[in-house]
Automatic annotation (TrEMBL):
The lineage of its organism: Bacteria, Bacillati, Actinomycetota, Actinomycetes, Pseudonocardiales. One of its GO terms (biological process) is proteolysis. The chain crosses the membrane at residues 7-31. Belongs to the peptidase C40 family. This is Putative endopeptidase.
Amino acid sequence: MDQKKGTVVFAVAAVVMTFLVAVTSMGIAMFTAVTGGVLPGGGCGGDGGIGGGSQSIGGTDWNAEQTENAATIVNRVVQRSLPRRAAVIAISTTIVESQLVNVGHGDRDSLGLYQQRPSQGWGSPAQILNPVAATDTFLDRLVELPGWASMAPGQAAQAVQRSAFPDRYAPQEEPAAALVDQFWVGPDNPVPGPTGAPNVQLASSVYACPDQGGAGVPLAPSNIDPKQLPPGFTPPADPAQRAAVTYALAQLGKPYVWGAKGPDGFDCSGLMLAAWASAGVPIPAGTVNQKNAGTPASPANIAPGDLVFIPGSLGSPSNPRHVGMYVGQGLVVNAYDSSTGVVLQPLSDWADEITHVRHIAGPAGQPAPDAALAEAAP
């Protein structure tokens, strides 16, 4: 009798457990369907960026920097009217070479997403450390290969990269294809003909998130011309800081373009990335990722080239959406918004809004000067 009761109890427990597992599995499936694979802290309302922030795609978890770089590559392939296959090959290469992170180190003088080497004719460090320019160089070499679009998985990537480990690329084509599927817009493009004539592509952005807003700080009346270098401006003495600051200031007046990293337009974080790339210093793509670049600093102890973060029009103190560069003499340069472009502002205009300051390279900062040219006019 006791044995029968035990059997019945065990059977009932088994049914209950089966039911709970089914409900839990259903809940997980529903959560995944509702969130679209967004990871905690990710998505357009979280760590955002053009790639949609941290998320699970094709069974692999990617952070915001990785999805931003993937979206940048896909967008460049679309802009060049190349087939989807080109994006899969490019992304599978970067997964192998850098895990889709814009790194400043590698084998010998290898740099960037693709681990391209300046000494082997891949371009200057400034080009290699800019994901757009590096992708263009990779694609230029890819499309020169006869029959590249029909090569076996990994073969075209190896033909471009000439790696000592040729078998690494093919296994990454599946996760690369999932990333491309996430961002690709419109139909596939045919393989370009021998004439090299451009193909028609839908005029639509591949970016996962809408523009996440401009500076949100009014351009107050000032004795600073926002689109001109002030007379007598002296760039910093440190070579890396001078290169980054000089590059950023050379972009004054250029348009703000969401997701752009130069040379014809920039968003706020794209200008920072391109400026420091010009100095041979890699920083992540995207404002939220750049918030953790380098080392902490403060407005009271700031150096030329430091990144200055404010909430912007759509951010918050804990999740700033806008970044500029302190260039010295009490000034900050930034890609302000889509109607204004790249401008100079007094750092004092930002003072009440600053959430983070990050020191990237060169000597640590000194207290910011209360220079006359940094003061807003009465």
